[in-house]
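Support request from a user on the community tier.

User writes: "When I paste my structure tokens into the form, the page sometimes reloads and wipes my input. The last time it worked, I copied everything first. Here is what I submitted, just in case something in the input itself triggers the reload:"
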């Protein structure tokens, strides 16, 4: 049987069907295997962005300028807290060098930081970063600014600092987190504080450590988070093995130990009458430098005595007070 296609040429029906099938198979050819989306040596991703980059806060040892501050809003008395898209008044104008287009970070000093976890004593003032604004109108001694980013509600009295552009460190190609890595002898510090007062932390949360410029820490440095083995748990008291009381009338009970014993009596000479061994005694016979690896952090901002970091990996929850070691 033959068929005439568009009046051009006669083909056998079987040949026509073969051509159609080949075209369909070609159209259904699977796409090439997609490339991985995980960071590798040819494609890097930022370790922090947005809120974690410009709202992370810091602990500053040097004095903080109080010359520029937010002094109000055009919607008073109905509004005393301001956010994205609102206009606010600044206590400086053309006489103080303000110009349209100037950009500022809005900060709120929260108080002096001392920590039982750090040997440095006074670490400086904890500064909360509240947002950013741009000057849109300038008068002689006052300016109007538009809030262009907000990490929290702004309030009268919040301070202004010149806006500093920040670039996030890029991720490196990560190897599996080694849970048994040994100390490397580099700088060691402590987590002294976390953003929003949190104490049990996980990935992508912001922390502050007591290593800074004076310790040669730099933006982009990676640090291992750890704690000495056996420290930092919720349960402080050792939980021993629970056994029935031994009974001399039943041979099977003789070697089970006493009430709440951790171990039965060990053999001494020909008799099993040695002292039972408690867990703390056994642990005293191991090296003192064993540690539990709990995570990894990257430095985002460095001040005199401290640095701001983001947690990028965890093996378990991270605590304030945990130790950090420069990799």
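"...and here is what came back when it finally went through:"
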């Amino acid at each position: 049987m033959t068929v005439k296609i568009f009046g051009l040429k006669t083909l056998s029906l079987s040949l026509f069907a073969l051509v159609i099938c080949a075209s369909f198979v070609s159209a259904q050819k699977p796409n090439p295997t997609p490339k991985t989306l995980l960071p590798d040596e040819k494609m890097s991703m930022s370790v922090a962005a947005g809120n974690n980059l410009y709202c992370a806060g810091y602990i500053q040892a040097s004095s903080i300028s109080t010359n520029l501050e937010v002094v109000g809003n055009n919607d008073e008395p109905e509004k005393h807290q301001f956010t994205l898209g609102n206009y606010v008044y600044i206590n400086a104008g053309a006489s103080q060098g303000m110009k349209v287009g100037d950009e500022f970070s809005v900060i709120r000093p929260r108080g002096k930081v001392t920590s039982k976890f750090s040997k440095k004593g006074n670490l400086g003032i904890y500064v909360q970063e509240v947002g950013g604004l741009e000057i849109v109108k300038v008068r002689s001694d006052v300016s109007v600014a538009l809030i262009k980013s907000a990490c929290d509600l702004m309030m009268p009295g919040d301070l202004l600092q010149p806006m500093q552009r920040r670039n996030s460190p890029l991720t490196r190609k990560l190897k599996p987190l080694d849970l048994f890595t040994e100390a490397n002898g580099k700088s060691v510090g402590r987590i002294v504080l976390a953003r929003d007062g949190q104490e049990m932390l996980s990935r992508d949360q912001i922390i502050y450590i007591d290593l800074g410029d004076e310790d040669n820490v730099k933006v982009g440095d990676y640090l291992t988070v750890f704690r000495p083995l056996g420290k930092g748990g919720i349960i402080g008291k050792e939980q021993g093995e629970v056994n029935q009381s031994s009974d001399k009338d039943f041979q099977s009970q003789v070697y089970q130990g006493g009430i709440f014993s951790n171990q039965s009596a060990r053999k001494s000479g020909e008799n099993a009458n040695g002292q039972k061994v408690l867990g703390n005694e056994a642990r005293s016979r191991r090296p003192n430098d064993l540690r539990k690896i709990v995570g990894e952090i990257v430095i985002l901002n460095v001040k005199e005595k401290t640095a701001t970091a983001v947690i990028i990996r965890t093996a378990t929850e991270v605590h304030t007070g945990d130790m950090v070691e420069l990799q």
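Agent notes: The reload is a front-end session timeout and is unrelated to the input. The two ends are 78 Å apart (CA to CA). The longest strand covers residues 122-138. Escalated to web team.
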